[in-house]
């Protein structure tokens, strides 16, 4: 098939997950008269049918109704009369975390209570689908306050980032299959880290067990993550053991607590430190490394 230099398609090596979003207790201020309206008539209605009247709107959406309510978004677009009022506008978010992300909304106006369709989105809401429920909250000078509930789903691409590994070059490479969330981690150690094993949910929703990467050791530590608990940092030390660079100690930090360090923590000779800390908005979702089936020779992390 012929191609054009201005058009490109590239295979995506990651995965895509469906993300649900729901915003409630938002209040749209529909001001149509007075000194500061947030809509303006741009096309007059047909004198015979009364159809065709078109207005541009820059409606404001707040997180409350009081004087201290914070502006969180604007609904910018058009509404026109074609027997009923038809709306097509973009909700442009101004709140931190969603700033400049958008939702594309379309639908017919309804009296007092009803809903509009979400037919697209950008940024944090890429390819969104859903509904905006609206309900009359009350009247103010020159307009109305409409309570909004926004509920939908969007697609988020998962592109894993590999950080590391740290340690030696002994043994063979060990990997994980597109990890998405760590469920548990098991460490065996005596003097140094003998092995690491962990269970995780992959991007396709299946449960996997990676490892054990190493050999049996008498000391065992098992970490089982609770609901909503994710790994945010991994640190440790590297040391020389039997003429090999291996992982000496490991410590794991989640959004709820710290685990470890495990390994040869009592050795007066501290090994070379390393650490991986997930940036804000990201988590550590899996591990990779090297093992010679005796020790954990090296370890790295996957972040998303």
Automatic annotation (TrEMBL):
Keywords: Apoplast, Lectin, Secreted. The keyword Cell cycle does not apply. GO terms for biological process: phenylpropanoid biosynthetic process. The keyword Membrane does not apply. Its main location: secreted. One of its GO terms (cellular component) is apoplast. Residues 160-304 form the Jacalin-type lectin domain. It holds the Pfam family Dirigent. One of its GO terms (molecular function) is carbohydrate binding. It is found in: Secreted, Extracellular space, Apoplast. InterPro entries: Allene_oxi_cyc_Dirigent, Dirigent, Jacalin-like_lectin_dom, Jacalin-like_lectin_dom_plant, Jacalin-like_lectin_dom_sf. Gene3D superfamilies: Allene oxide cyclase-like, Jacalin-like lectin domain. Dirigent proteins impart stereoselectivity on the phenoxy radical-coupling reaction, yielding optically active lignans from two molecules of coniferyl alcohol in the biosynthesis of lignans, flavonolignans, and alkaloids and thus plays a central role in plant secondary metabolism. Belongs to the plant dirigent protein family. Homodimer. This is Dirigent protein. It comes from Triticum aestivum (Wheat).
């Amino acid at each position: 098939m012929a191609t054009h230099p201005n058009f490109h398609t590239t295979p995506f090596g990651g995965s895509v997950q469906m993300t649900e979003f729901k915003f409630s207790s938002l209040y749209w201020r529909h001001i149509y008269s007075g000194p500061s309206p947030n809509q303006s008539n741009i096309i007059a209605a047909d004198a015979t049918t009364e159809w065709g009247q078109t207005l541009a709107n820059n409606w404001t959406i707040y997180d409350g109704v009081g004087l201290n309510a914070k502006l969180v978004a604007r609904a910018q677009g058009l509404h026109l009369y074609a027997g009923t009022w038809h709306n097509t506008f973009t909700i442009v978010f101004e709140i931190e975390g969603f700033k400049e992300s958008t939702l594309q909304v379309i639908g017919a106006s309804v009296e007092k209570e009803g809903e509009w369709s979400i037919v697209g989105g950008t940024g944090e809401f890429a390819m969104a689908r859903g509904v905006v429920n609206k309900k009359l909250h009350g009247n103010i000078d020159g307009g109305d306050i409409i309570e909004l509930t926004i509920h939908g789903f969007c697609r988020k691409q998962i592109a894993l980032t590999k950080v590391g590994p740290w340690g030696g070059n002994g043994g063979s490479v060990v990997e994980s299959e597109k990890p998405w969330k760590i469920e548990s981690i098991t460490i065996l150690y005596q003097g140094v880290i003998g092995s690491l094993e962990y269970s995780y949910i992959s991007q396709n929703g299946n449960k996997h067990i990676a490892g054990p990467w190493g050999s049996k050791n008498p000391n065992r530590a098992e970490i089982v993550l609770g609901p909503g608990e994710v790994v945010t940092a991994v640190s440790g030390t590297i040391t020389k053991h039997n003429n090999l660079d291996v992982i000496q100690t490991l410590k794991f930090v989640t959004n709820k607590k710290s685990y470890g360090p495990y390994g040869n923590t009592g050795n007066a000779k501290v090994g070379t430190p390393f650490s991986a800390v997930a940036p804000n908005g990201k988590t550590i979702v899996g591990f990779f490394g090297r093992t010679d089936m005796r020790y954990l020779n090296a370890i790295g992390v996957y972040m998303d």
